[in-house]
Amino acid sequence: MVRDITILYSAADAFITRSGRTTTADLLCASLPAVLIPIRGHMEQEAIAKAMSRLYGYPTIREYRCSPHRLAEELMKSIENRPKPPTEECLGGVKTAHLLLELVH
């Protein structure tokens, strides 16, 4: 367990992960390639993985179809096609920081 997940994000070239809302949003905003493996039968994770695949090109593998060879292939595809984060959704923290800076000055 890591207290500050941003340490892992800054150290990683790519991720193999479940498709939880927070994790996928963080990976997208950091423009990190990833392979998503939603929990089987978890409707929210399956929907998020589908959307992330359709909108940003994140490869998705079903648990029962996951193999080392397939995982390696999909990871290479993800690295070659690094996702482009949507600026508006991912810059909220930067905008907030500028607003706070203006208030302090």
Can you walk me through this structure?
The structure is a single chain. With 105 residues, the chain is mainly α. Helix 2 links the parallel strand 1 and strand 2. The model has no long low-confidence stretch (mean pLDDT 86). The N and C termini lie far apart (38 Å). The radius of gyration is 16 Å and the shape is elongated. Helices cover 57% and strands 6% of the residues. The protein has one domain: Rossmann fold, CATH 3.40.50.2000.
What is the fourth-level CATH superfamily? Glycogen Phosphorylase B
Helix content: 55-70%
Arrangement of strands in the largest sheet: 1-2
CATH class: Alpha Beta
The CATH architecture classification is 3-Layer(aba) Sandwich
Q: Which structural class do the helices and strands define? A: mainly alpha
* Total strands: 2
The parts where pLDDT drops under 50 for at least 5 residues are none
Count of discrete structural domains: 1
Strand coverage percent: 5-15%
Secondary-structure element order, N to C: HEHEHHHH
H/I helix tally: 6
CA radius of gyration: 16 Å
Largest sheet: 2 strands, parallel
Mean pLDDT: 86
- End-to-end separation in angstroms reads 38 Å
Q: Indicate the overall shape.
A: elongated
- The CATH topology is Rossmann fold
